[in-house]
Amino acid sequence: MFDIGASEILIIIVVAVAVIGPKDMPAALRQAGRWMGKMRRMSNHVRSGIDTMIREAEMDDMEKEWKAQNERIMREHPDAAADIAEFEPSMRPHTQSAEEPEMRPLAPPAESDAPSGEPKAHDSDELPPASELPQLPFGEGKG
Predict the structure, then answer these.
(1) Is the residue at 129 inside a domain?
(2) Cβ-proximal residues to 126 (8 Å cutoff; 6+ apart), any chain
(3) Using one digit for the tens of pLDDT, what is the confidence trace for 28-83?
(4) 3-state secondary structure labels for all residues of the chain
């Protein structure tokens, strides 16, 4: 990138030792390393932001092309929509068929006949109410 050769690095080191001094050289090198790390992180952050913007623009273009092609196909083949709806369940309006079981909420757990001092038969199988469950923050703590 900068095209610095070995002889130029040697000259920089000799000048740095003469100006900074051998005692303060390790601290100066640490500080220079920190600056390089900050610059590298900032450049990676900018690069990832640009990559994200490019990816989103490409996805928008692909979505526009897909919609245009889909509209063209539907214009050329109007009977295709009926065929798709026949084979693709997500394209049909939802109706309850005889094959599908009716969805209903679970019944609350039955109270045990055991005395109050004894544990219920399936105490470990019962879940606490949703209000007592801990609230987990989604999306935090990842990479």
Answers:
(1) no
(2) 109, 120
(3) 889 989 999 999 999 999 999 999 999 999 999 999 999 999 888 888 887 766 66
(4) CCCCCHHHHHHHHHHHHHHHCCCCHHHHHHHHHHHHHHHHHHHHHHHHHHHHHHHHHHHHHHHHHHHHHHHHHHHHCCHHHHHHHHHCHHHCCCCCCCCCCCCCCCCCCCCCCCCCCCCCCCHHHCCCCHHHCCCCCCCCCCC
Which two structure tokens, joined as six digits, stand for 23?
């005692």
Show the domain range for 35: 1-56
Over the chain, what is the mean pLDDT?
Answer: 76
Q: Given a cut of 80, is residue 126 above it in pLDDT?
A: no
Q: Are residues 26 and 71 in the same domain?
A: no
What domain count does the chain have?
A: 2
